Amino acid sequence: MRPLAPVTGLILSGGGARAAYQVGVLAAIAELLPAGCANPFPVIVGTSAGAINAVSLASGALDFARAVEHLTEFWQGFESHLVLRSDWPGVIHQAARFLSHSLLGLGSHVPVALLNSSPLRSLLADKINFAGIDQAIAEQQLRAVAVTAFGYTSGQAVTFYQGQVAIDGWLRHRRIGLPTALTVDHLLASSAIPLLFAPVKVGQEYFGDGAVRQSAPISPALHLGASRVLVVGVSGNPRGPDPQVDQQLYSNAQQPTLAQIGGHMLNSTFIDSLESDIELLERMNHFVRLLPHQSDNLGLAPVEVLIIAPSQPIDEIAARHRHELPSALRMFLRGPGATQTSGAGVLSYLLFESGYCRELIELGRRDAMAKREALCRFLRV
Length: 381
Prior knowledge:
Structural class: alpha/beta
Distance between the termini: 27 Å
Order of helices and strands: EHEHHHHHHEEEEHEEHEHHEHHHHH
Radius of gyration: 21 Å
Number of helices: 16
Largest sheet: 10 strands, mixed
């Protein structure tokens, strides 16, 4: 049962380095809110890199503006070596281990990952105050925060949430909600992009990126009591079809590179399910509004949704910043075609460099301010 008073939820989708865009949106929201305003999002849900942003925001929910400031500083100072081994010995060693295990079957305990993301554990442990979550819950500035990860053994999308004791877990088709005290392991598991980053063991099972097989990204927020949601996406293809451009592309079509194929697979994992879930929710809202008022007795009520997504193609932004990659990573990604314009989709997820992140942050801020009136109405300010 949902609370009688409206509860606002924030949904931060996944997308590797693309999640810097979300920080710009949050920075704009912090500017629009009155000084000293309480946390406007009692329910915060994140997936993949969005899980890192969600938990960071929840841990500082007692001072929303300061939490956003910390998060902005966090992303503005990003460099690849803070997230993964980007030096020559690290890249070569990890690639050799991956190939020897995956192709030759050598080493039964070698992680199935092309990149070594071990530096990220130390970074998150140093930057996120997990004790702040309990404090925010105790002072009723936070109802719940949740992160979703994918279980490789069970095949379930598991939402780990920390919140008020009155919130029960849930069990749906391939979707589970489990109450727990969130840790660095949950964030690493939720952001472990398949094949690129190693799975993380949580409890008795290995988990990977929560966007994998997450059929209903909005549902965890509703299970946690949200009755209205702000969705910050990272879709990087806002342009509609242009027949002239399409005709030119088809006439000059070349065989796709490995990176181009991988980019489409990543987009399918991180973006398509969220956009489909939003479309389904909007249809359900329309259906509920057509029902008689007695439908309230059935537990049906429309869910207000506001969506903010990039107004520019993120792939093109990543292509402009490819020179920022360390030489070892640039050489490693050149072979599959990730440093080419056509393969910039993969690059956009892995470009943890300050120039790229800063441009995404600024884009997020501009896009949010472009919806200033809608945001103010949604946030009741």
